[in-house]
Design brief:
Helix content: 40-55%
Structural class: mainly alpha
CATH topology: Arc Repressor Mutant, subunit A
CATH architecture: Orthogonal Bundle
Radius of gyration: 17 Å
CATH class: Mainly Alpha
Largest sheet: 2 strands, antiparallel
Order of helices and strands: HHHEEH
Number of domains: 1
Strand content: 5-15%
CATH superfamily: Winged helix-like DNA-binding domain superfamily/Winged helix DNA-binding domain
């Protein structure tokens, strides 16, 4: 697995949690909900597109529920490679945090 950025990790996790509702705006909103950071659409779209090109994600177009509500929306879902990357990231984080304890200050 290549190293993924924190933002790419957050995007993959957001898509995992959103399941069938994973498109640009809800992905951005979920990242804001958990990280407290509000990213512009472009700041999310660039790594989202990169993850798609590199095979971590699949995309598909879905028409709005009401036909007169505009153009189709691009949705995303994790591929096997995307799931594997998240598993590896989780394992790496657990290994790196193993044994960590905050020292008592002033001693």
């Amino acid at each position: 697995m290549k190293n993924l950025t924190r933002r790419e990790e957050q995007i993959l996790l957001a898509i995992f949690h959103l399941k069938e509702e994973a498109y640009l705006i809800p992905i951005r909103e979920m990242i804001k909900k958990y990280s407290g950071k509000y990213y512009s659409v472009g700041t999310i779209y660039a790594p989202l597109n990169k993850l798609h090109i590199e095979g971590y994600l699949e995309s598909f177009l879905k028409k709005p529920r009401l036909p007169d509500r505009g153009k189709p929306i691009k949705y995303y879902k994790l591929t096997k490679k995307g799931f594997k990357a998240l598993e590896q990231l989780k394992e790496l984080q657990a290994q790196m945090w193993e044994g960590f304890k905050t020292p008592i200050m002033g001693e």
